[in-house]
Amino acid sequence: MTRPTRAVLEALAEQPFEWRYGYDLSKATGLGSGTLYPLLMRIKERGWLESRWEPSPEPGRPARHMVRLTAEGRATAAALSPGAEPRLGYA
Amino acid sequence: MIESLVSLMSSRRREWAQAALAELHAAPPGLPLFHWTLGVIAMAIADLIEGVLLPWRRRDDDPSVDALSAVLGLLLIAWPLYVIAANLLNAAGVSVFEEAIRPLSKEPLGLGGPLLFFLVLALGGWLNLITGVRSLRWDNSVLSIGLRFRWRNLAVLGLAGVLLLTTLAYGVLEGVDARGLG
Q1: What is the ipTM of this complex?
Q2: Nearest CB to A37: which of B19, B26, B35?
Q3: Of A68, A67, A69, nearest to A79 (Cα)?
Q4: Could you give the 3-state DSSP secondary structure of residue A69?
Q5: CB-based contact (8 Å) between B174 and chain A?
Q6: Does residue A14 contact residue A62 with C-beta atoms inside 8 Å?
Q7: Is B61 or B155 the better-scoring residue by pLDDT?
């Protein structure tokens, strides 16, 4: 698993049941949009992530895209924590 | 402008680029906003380049990459098409188009030379040929290639092929002539 993928999973695992915005994840991981979003796409294709669009509460603002870990994603992220056995291949 | 670029992306990645675009207002003005925007543009360009050069990696049947290949191919073959058409018209007695480019046609390695024609025609044709490759996989030492072309890519491919053959024939005939056989 690459370091950025691990960083994204770890950032999501800090609040494993919360929906997160991309920009917050970018701040938490230090990854730019050009790296973060292709990574999120691949993580979702692995079934570790779910996403949804949320209408903006402010009129005139576009809907925002949110992501959070699935049960499988949470298990994967938990396996990354120190002391846990690595069990996954490359993302 | 960014929205137009994003709309050209494959549907697999378009949603994610739109998600990144929706976060633009969350980024503070200045350098962070600039970096965020640059990242979205890089994503779109990388997707388009991958779609054009490695079309079999696409997971959907997105027509925008085929259209982009056709446009790029047409742009590439436009100049050889003009030069060859001008020479044909000149042979038929209409010299105005050929006269306009005559100074460029003297050098074999110049803008009107066959080497440049060969390169741009081959590139334009190649872009539209690989766009038709929908699947590519190795199974027990057997390479399976799935092809499906759109008419516009076939048209550009055909045109590039005809012009390439014309350029090659011209090069061969000129070569024979230059050796004193003509």
Answers
A1: 0.78
A2: B19
A3: A69
A4: strand
A5: no
A6: no
A7: B155
